[in-house]
Amino acid sequence: SKAEIVAKNLLSNFGLSKRLYNKPKELSGGEKQRVALSRAIANKPDIILADEPTGNLDSKSGLEILKFFDQLHKAGNTIIVVTHEKSIAKRAKRRVELFDGKITLDE
Questions:
Q1: Terminal alpha carbon distance of the chain
Q2: What is the pTM of this model?
Q3: Which of 51, 21, 46, 9 is nearest to 33 (CA)?
Q4: DSSP strand E in 20-85: where?
Q5: What is the CA radius of gyration of the chain?
Q6: Which pLDDT tens digit goes with each residue over 41-88?
Q7: How far is CA 9 from the centre of its chain?
Q8: In which band, very low, low, confident or very high, does the pLDDT at 11 lie, cut at 50, 70 and 90?
Q9: How many CA atoms within 13 Å lie on the side-chain side of 70?
């Protein structure tokens, strides 16, 4: 089906082609996170909310995710990323920082 083709392509983009038929308990934390990202973008949403999207990933895999977010953004998607990592925050077109529930930066 078309949905199955889309799912396989997304999983392939995230380096999970060899894990198509594995059960969730057989995946690492990082693999589970990449599956979650694939599911989140499968229906081509206009807005993506990513809470610590690279948290369980090694630096190479994390960079791949961020590059994919760059592609999605260039295609017109709005991506809201929640992170504690300044290197990830610096990639954003707009940054809003919170401290104790109050906005301390909006640029």
A1: 44
A2: 0.74
A3: 51
A4: 47-51, 78-82
A5: 15
A6: 888 888 999 999 888 788 888 888 888 888 888 888 899 999 999 999
A7: 16
A8: confident
A9: 10
